[in-house]
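Batch manifest line 267
LIGAND: NAP
JOB: complex structure
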Amino acid sequence: MSVFKGLVCIITGASSGIGRELAYTWASQGASLVLAARNEKRLTDIAKECKARGGQAHVVLTDVAEQEACKHLVEETIRTFGRLDILVNNAGISMYALFDELDDLSAMDKIMKINFYGSMYCTFYALPHLKASKGRIVGISSLTGKTGVPTRSVYAASKHAMAGFFDSLRLEMRDHGVSVTMIYPGFVQSEVRSRAIGTDGQSLGSSTAQEEKAMTAEACAQIISKATAHRKREVVMTARAKLGLWMKLIAPALVDFMAAKAIKTGK
Ligand SMILES: NC(=O)c1ccc[n+]([C@@H]2O[C@H](COP(=O)([O-])OP(=O)(O)OC[C@H]3O[C@@H](n4cnc5c(N)ncnc54)[C@H](OP(=O)(O)O)[C@@H]3O)[C@@H](O)[C@H]2O)c1
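JOB STATUS: finished
ARTIFACT:
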């Protein structure tokens, strides 16, 4: 029997990409899903598909940059399903701009608000319920949460912030039976790069990477699901990144070179 059968799971950023595929993965295993994001039409369609795959699904329109909305998300989950077992902090936006070429900083505030503060807000309100269920927290970071790369400065900062926050929380939650799993994906097929913020503060509208060479969101969701089931501490997704982390200890400049090349070639 699946670990996820009957578990109540909030997934933020469930309207697209990795979040959507994770919802489908867990719906197929009989989970009860709370789908959070801002695009109502997409979420409603995804909820329908989750139900068709054997799960339960409830949509809660949520802008994770708003603390009150995150509180409402958790309250609505408890009102609907009576408990909470898993919180996946997945909602995120990226950037594609050199820091010294930005027109202004307003969009950069947005990146921190969504990626870091949004994760912190949702976790704060979810924690009492996760302690009661001895539940699981999952944070979707990025390889830029392990090492900085050009064109992603503030995005990398937001993902490093997530790592510092959740690594600390893992220790605080140890005696409460709540696990914290951090996920560090590489390139995954999704809308994250076409929606990334450019120098003018607007979405790029198209991807700068070789999307066809990226991991599928479905494969990524399978890895996240397995790590969550096993309450793993963290997953660094690509072999190149795993090697890079070791090399960073002895030859950090070489890792800088590898990271910059990956961004330049888009794979
Ligand atoms: N794809 C990759 O290569 C990759 C690599 C490393 C890390 N990641 C991380 O993986 C996570 C998922 O991204 P993805 O690749 O699946 O990208 P995506 O297809 O662009 O999905 C991003 C999701 O975040 C939601 N979102 C954005 N702003 C939000 C807000 N203010 N409030 C609530 N939800 C919001 C979007 O929904 P709405 O617009 O409907 O709100 C969407 O559902 C992100 O944290 C991203 O940084 C992705």
